[in-house]
Amino acid sequence: MVPMLLAELVATSAAVAATRSRLAKVAALAETLTRAAPDEVEIVTSYLSGSLRQRRTGVGWRSARATVAPAEKPSLTVTEVDAAFAGLAELSGPGSQTARKARLDDLMGRATADEQRWLAGLITGETRQGALDGIMVDALIRASGLPAADIRRAVMLAGATGPVAVAALTEGADAVARIGLVVGRPVRPMLAASAKTVAEALDGLGGEVAVEAKLDGIRIQVHRDGDDIRVFTRSLDDVTDRLPDVVEAVSALPANRLILDGEALALSADGRPRPFQETAARSMSNDAEALRGRTPMTSYFFDLLALDDEELLDLPGSERVARLAELVPDTARVGRIVTDDVAVAERFTAAVLASGHEGVVVKALDAPYEAGRRGSSWIKVKPVHTLDLVVLAVEWGSGRRRGWLSNIHLGARDPATGGFVMLGKTFKGMTDAMLTWQTERFLALEDHRDDWTVYLRPEQVVEIAFDGLQRSTRYPGGLALRFARVLRYRDDKDAAEADTIETVRRIAGVAEPLP
Question: Are strands 297-307 and 257-266 parallel, antiparallel or unpaired?
Fold first, then answer.
């Protein structure tokens, strides 16, 4: 088989970007997948999903841009490119920056102008387009001809699409079926849909439900295999070394092997949550021991996915929680009640809010753990409208805010196009400290600018509160946020996890895109 050229991926990526049709995107991706050799499948899947296989290469935004003349004709193969990035990732110590620059120049010098631009986007994450990974899963289903349910479950349990693509396209159904829950390998977490009120959530599920506190912390997934305990974030990053408090808490539990789902957060002396930024900073700090004395982290768990030799994913939620209660003390479990009474649920919600937390999650008692899915079995309810949006651009401030980047442009993900739909701007809710931080942050994300606005790579997620939505001819989605204000920047989420334009339309009560 002739090695696949990088130019073929660049052409496929251009075709995907050029169409709004999801079916056309899936067809283009699937056709390219079917042409990949066995040793190319995972690379092709990763690159066309907008990311490198190496999580870190040491190449930053500024150095990603080519500084050497491009090649006249395409010659780079996808395996050569992957090997080059693997070599970059291995460099460390004195002289590594110089060596890295030399190797990157060598790679870019073998790339055409189009390939140089595409590689730069791949390095910086600029080619990521909202739900592209979801589109890739659909493409894999089409390319493999295997049942959609089997592929989706395998992707959820593998935590990534690449390994499943290799199994499906090189070995077939049996290999996909062998991909199961593995202690130590994070799975994509089950996600919740949204409702405006507790009554709406209960009505949507019907009958008795569990109502759980939605804590103002970071989502954690903890794996234990004997003395080896690993802590992962919702984005499946390993933060074990940063959260020794969580490791200690889980090491005291009477089990040899387990997978727990929960939250970790910093608490004040009175038990109320400290500002989310403190929790986020602790989870991202590389100096966890130094922070530990000042900001202890407390873990609370709400689900149990595996215990010793048992997989619990497919058990009803009520049974998983019963097993959790046998293992984890009440003080380390998320508060919950079981009821079919709206008034009882609302009183519980009021108590959760009074204690400083975000809201509640209403859960169907019979639901299995649907890893990686935002289904209808879990429904979150917050007291105000909030959306996790992506900052697309930012304007320089005036008056007292002169010299700071201030007014941010907000966008929701559009799975149909893989891009973002602008919903408005805001400078409300920003403290001086936030303005200082975001000015530095957004200059680092700069793509280009004009006299007044800095346009950004779509990476920074921000949680926005708003009073409602109104029809708008100014913005392409036909909707605009009313009285939007910044609650916090979400460094624990990436742009692929931002809310979609469909979610916005549901909140607005609009079923279809507005003209």
Answer: antiparallel
Structure tokens at 159: 């935590």
Task: Please check whether residue 277 is in contact with residue 230, taking contact to mean a CB–CB distance below 8 angstroms.
Answer: no
Catalytic residue among 25, 196, 214, 380: 214
Q: Which residue has the tokens 């997989």?
A: 311
d(CA 462, CA 116): 31
d(CA 220, CA 232): 6
Place of tokens 């990311």: 51
- In the 3-class helix/strand/coil scheme, how is 291-318 assigned residue by residue? HHCCCCEEEEEEEEEEECCEECCCCCHH
* 363-402: b (≥16 Cβ within 10 Å) or e: bbbebbbbbbbeeebbbbbbeebbbbbbbbbbbbbeeebe
Lowest-pLDDT choice from 93-107, 297-311, 483-497: 93-107
Residue 95's alpha-carbon distances to 98, 99, 123, 400, 408, in angstroms, are: 5, 6, 21, 44, 39
**C-alpha to C-alpha distances, 314 to 114, 319, 369, nearest whole angstrom:** 47, 10, 6
Q: Please say if 196 is a catalytic residue.
A: no
228 touches 373 (CB < 8 A): no
Summarize pLDDT for 253-295 with one digit per residue, the tens: 999 999 999 999 999 888 888 877 678 777 776 665 665 566 7
